[in-house]
Amino acid sequence: MERRLAAIVCADVVGYSRMMGADEAGTHAAFKAHRGAIHPIILNHGGRIVKYTGDGFLLEFPSVVGAIAASVEVQKLMAERNAHLPADRVMQFRLGLNMGDVIFDEDEVFGDGVNTAVRLEAAAPPGGIAISHKAYQEASKHLTVTFVDRGPFRFKNIEDTINVWTWDPSSPEKSREQRSATTLPAQYRTAIVGVLPFANLSGETDEYFSDGLAEDLIHALSLQSFFRVLSRNSTFAFKHAGMSARLIAREIDATYLIQGSVRRSGDKIRVTAELVAPENGEQLWAGRYDRDIGDLFAVQDDITANLCTALIPEIYRAEAAVPVRSKTTDLTAWDRFLRGLSHYYQPTKADYESSIALFREAIRIDPGLAIAHTYLGTILLQGIHFGWIRNSRELWDEAMALAEAGVRLDSRSSFSYSLLAYVHAMQGRVEAGMEAARKSLQLNPYDMGARGVLGVCHLVAGEHRQAIELFSVAAQRGNSDPRYQWSVLSAFSHYMLGQYDASLSWARESHYQNPNHLQCLAIRAAALAQLGRSVEAGEAVAALLSQHPWMTIERLLSNIRWRNPADITHYRDGLTKAGIPLTKLTLVDTKAKFAGE
Predict the structure, then answer these.
(1) Which of 61 and 240 is assigned the larger pLDDT?
(2) Whose CA is closest to 35, among 20, 10, 57?
(3) 596 has a pLDDT exceeding 80
(4) Within a 10 A sphere around the Cβ of 27, how many other Cβ atoms?
(5) How much is the average pLDDT of 46-70?
(6) What is the overall mean pLDDT for the chain?
(7) What pLDDT score does 187 carry?
């Protein structure tokens, strides 16, 4: 047994017995789904689940500040998940929190510190938190919400009275710090996206799934900062209106509409969705997802993630193609950025250079435009990997400065944190990269870019199986986004595991998308050489050197900061076998020398 100071959180569901009596299976499924949703929050604050208690759970944190921050986030997330549910399906937690000396024995916790947290939970308002005075004193300087002093309480089986502080999110008390979802100015977030209720083409019993899918998609899309997303109340008012998309868009002033349908047959469910520009009726994107029903909440989350990652780059593309909005010849920073974005979606070196110039101009006009900093940093690094720009220390320093500026200017942008994570990882700072990548995922769990960048951190760390898993998910869901090159990264991790056929397969996939990608051409040549396919390896090297005649093994390895020296040796071996020059030879004119003798 071990004693140590810890923060303990006890949670239970308000009215759980009543809900179980009305719908036992549905209540249990909803409780499991809510537990799964809040679990990442617990982990992000260093906590762990000690045990489940039927209608609740017990958590342990090493820090009382982290415990309170996690508790507030949990209750805010639960409020979002409950916001549009019928009253009989709303599930609220009460959270009690205490800090004190506790006993640890085989992952269980015991002692007065735990008993007090259990009693405090009963004093918490539904959807709120109750904490002891000791915990409040310890964390008061770090609180972002207002706790109210409820005075002394006497609890059963606890000898001394305990002064209780509570936070009730439904009270008129305002948090100490009001933060908007993004710092991107409203005039720069020009597109307005409306998600219409998905049509339920099955029985009335499936209405909750189609409505829930649209609600989840609204939430997922709202986590990015490039465009505005209308609330559920704005779009669901037209559920049975029978109006055309064009008329609805005019009523709610939407630039784009997302609409779809849900059809269920036996144990399968089919979801179709489309993105339309309602003013001219153009269909910008359409997709279909067939799934086995299984856990409906898990299916709903999976489809939401796929929809979100497919739709966002399509909205970016559509916005980049919009004519300049300024009515004067003096273009704004946003106009410059959108013009740069339109060039970015054209994969040529000339467009690449134009986009860089326009992103720089946007930053010059408005140094506070965070998204321009992040895109400029991203495209500069892509230029290195494509072989369109010479690698240099100064370029990486600039990319880091741009990433840090993006995070500083828009602290809610998962994209900015992803770039920061990537620069850290590629420079060999794996822990810093992991931290930034996890922050990106915390801000937006649906951001496949953040998930893939976390894979880059594992690649650099030599943890290639974990990297492949993350690259595969990111590639499956977000492969249409040109900001990310998951195929070539997956080729590298497969190569390091000696899975050369798989590496070659991923390299081919990358080659189809980006025929001039320098790193793709190199790993393809190395994989062919390791497979003993020397003729094809020679052809791959010839293709590489025809586009990048200055390339050598030393240049290819000059920017690699992989943690495992064996990975670098392994890659060098494949490049050598393929026949890529080690270094550039300098020719000496011997004729002039002998002529003078």
Answers:
(1) 61
(2) 57
(3) no
(4) 21
(5) 87
(6) 83
(7) 42
Rounded CA gap, 129 and 214, in Å?
A: 30
Spatial CB neighbours of 85, under 8 Å, sequence gap ≥ 6: none
- Of 272, 258, 287, residue with least CA distance to 201: 272
SS3 annotation, 310-344: HHHHHHHHHHHCCCCCCCCCCCCHHHHHHHHHHHH
Q: Which residue has the tokens 């240099």?
A: 392
Nearest alpha-carbon partner for 495 in 538, 528, 451, 542? 528
Place of tokens 């809510």: 34
- Beta-bridge partners for 61: 7
H helices within 260-413, ranges in order?
296-320, 333-344, 349-365, 370-386, 393-409
- Over 70: is that where the pLDDT of 106 sits? no
Highest mean pLDDT among 95-104, 263-272, 520-529: 520-529
The b-or-e profile of 449-468 (16+ CB within 10 A means b, else e) is bbbbbbbbbbbbbbbbeebb
Buried b (16+ CB within 10 A) or exposed e, 202-221: beeebebbbbbbbbbbbbbb
CB-CB contact of 97 with 67 (8 Å): yes
Sorting pLDDT into bands at 50, 70 and 90, what band is 478?
Answer: low
State phi, psi for 134 to the nearest 5 degrees. Answer: -60, -45
pLDDT given at position 328: 41
Number of Cβ within 10 Å of residue 62's Cβ equals 14
Quote the pLDDT of residue 477: 67
- Please write the tens of the pLDDT for every residue from 159-189: 777 888 999 887 654 333 333 334 444 444 4
Please name the residues in contact with 382: beta carbons below 8 A apart, sequence gap of 6 or more.
352, 485
Contacts with 542 (C-beta within 8 Å, 6 or more apart), sequence order: none
State the DSSP string of 546-583: HH-TT--HHHHHTT---S-HHHHHHHHHHHHHHT--SS
pLDDT for the residue numbered 190: 61
Supply the DSSP symbol for 197.
Answer: P
The set of residues, in sequence order, having a beta carbon less than 8 Å from that of 193 and lying 6+ positions away, is 221, 227, 228, 229, 230, 254, 255, 256, 257, 258, 315
CA distance 215 to 85: 10
For tokens 């309480």, what's the residue?
A: 153
Q: What is the pLDDT, as a whole number, of residue 189? A: 45
- The reported pLDDT for the residue numbered 588 is 43
Task: Report helix, strand or coil for 388.
Answer: coil
The rounded distance, in Å, linking the Cα atoms of 540 and 506 is: 15
Note the pTM of the prediction, 2 decimals.
0.61
Find how far residue 237's CA is from the centre of its chain.
30
CA–CA distances in Å: residue 188 to residues 192, 339, 512: 11, 14, 34
Structure tokens that stand for 7 in this block: 């923060």
Of 528, 522, 506, 511, the C-alpha closest to 555 is 522
CA dist., res. 381 & res. 569, Å (int): 24
